[in-house]
Amino acid sequence: MRMIVMKFGGTSVGTTDSIDSTAKIVAAAVEGQNQSAGVEGRPDQGSESPGVLVVVSAMGGVTNTLIDAAQAAAAGDETPYRDARSQLLVRHQVVAGQLIEDGVERAGLGRLFDNRLREFERLCRSITVLGELTQRGLDVVSGVGERLSAPLLAAVLRANGVKAQFVDAGELIITDDQYGNASPLMDSTPDRCRDRLLPMMQSGVVPVVTGFVGATEKGVPTTLGRGGSDYSAAILGAALDADEIQIWTDVDGVMTADPRIVETAQSMEELSYEEVAELAYYGAKVLHPKTVTPAVERSIPLRVLNTFNPSHPGTSIVEKTRQLHHGVKAITAVRELRLITVAGRGMIGVPGIAARTFDAVARQRANVLMISQGSSEQSICFVVPEAEGDAVIEALKIEFARELAQHMIEEISNQPDIVIVAVIGAGMKGTPGIAARVFNALGEQDINVIAIAQGSSEANISLVVLQAEADEAIRAIHDTFELGNGAD
Ligand code: ADP
Ligand code: ASP
Ligand code: MG
């Protein structure tokens, strides 16, 4: 049985119309799979096993609503969660009312929505009573959206003649207890997935699985990080050794830049795992950064497709691209960052300052996105998320208290409101002069480059610019390399 995983993001299931489109796309895929199985001379298997697994995110905006309500509850404001409960009930029921004719099915769904949202309200009430929102509590609340949208989509699929069944990923994806950013345990997850899903699929059923969520071995709900449904699809695809993982979204694939910033950005036909991993890690929201890992391990091709333009071929992501591409393919950016500099003439020749700096940073569990060390050895600078900046500065001041008092280290300074702009393309490796062209493009626009790093991967040149100049920088680089003109 050829097997495909189809993941639909919040943008693909945000409204009645888009859920309708999603259901039609899945129904067509099931039909296509059945036909090709028939052509291959396996009608016995083909008719029974469409080999399609669906993963779905919460309806667009729902996760934010849930999180905001829980945070307000912790601060003592009960209005947002009460409003959210009734608003979410209506929003899901309206779709069910418009797309599902069967009264029994609709009533069942109505009860399910009501129960889940009552549970959400109960949780928020206890958050208010405790006056505290733990990461563990937040994971229960933020996963509610997928636990509403997946049963809804399964029922809409049934209304479209597809045998579909809702499955909660808490039964499939077993994770560690890093709430808010959990990682799957790969010794138990693949077996769970196969045991639960393969019999269903072999009997001709399309499982509709909640994206984003998992559970610990003890069954405590976890989430895989914001935007994590892409990662869910890849985990499930790898566990089942799927033939393709499809990410259905609201643009024609992975584009040369964020289309909201660069109007002329265009979709790319093909990318390597390496390129897409860099793009995702450096801010291209279209794919969760961890999505590539499970796919790479099993060499499963990924494809990014548009729910609102399903005949477009989208972007195919493979191990090795067919055509050698010389140079830059795409530009992306990570925002809300802070640049921290440890500087002083007393650092020269003193071993271990860099190691101590990064030990102190690691103790804060801060994520270092970029490191740049001047040739002079007088300073080390690195970039961390804005939210982690204060804790890192404090940790460094404690670590280097003696050096600061003795003026061996003169300052630990920080610059807020900066952005890393990443210029990406595997073909940059052997192509000289790219960095110079990037700098020229920025120089012409009077954009100041605060720091540069090349090295985390040869497919990436990263530079730090001020937040206020970031969009202009992206557009200038995109123009210089003529990425919007079909110069692929
Ligand atoms: P979904 O709900 O399908 O998961 P997301 O909003 O998470 O969708 O991701 C899709 C969005 O990512 C697009 O609408 C686009 O605005 C944004 N985006 C940012 N960078 C890129 C890029 N390089 N290519 C495509 N889309 C991008
Ligand atoms: N619904 C989750 C979020 O908004 C997961 C996802 O959309 O992929 O982060
Ligand atoms: Mg997404």
Automatic annotation (TrEMBL):
Domain ACT intervals: 342-421, 423-488
Binding locations of substrate: 146
EC number(s) recorded for this UniProt protein: 2.7.2.4
One function term, GO molecular function aspect: aspartate kinase activity
Signal peptide: none
Catalytic activity: L-aspartate + ATP = 4-phospho-L-aspartate + ADP
Keyword match Coiled coil: no
Binding site for ATP: 249-250, 260, 285-286
A Pfam family hit: ACT_9
One cellular component (GO) term of this entry: cytosol
Family the entry assigns: Belongs to the aspartokinase family.
PANTHER family assigned: ASPARTATE KINASE, ASPARTOKINASE
Protein name: Aspartokinase
Native source species: Caldilineaceae bacterium SB0664_bin_27
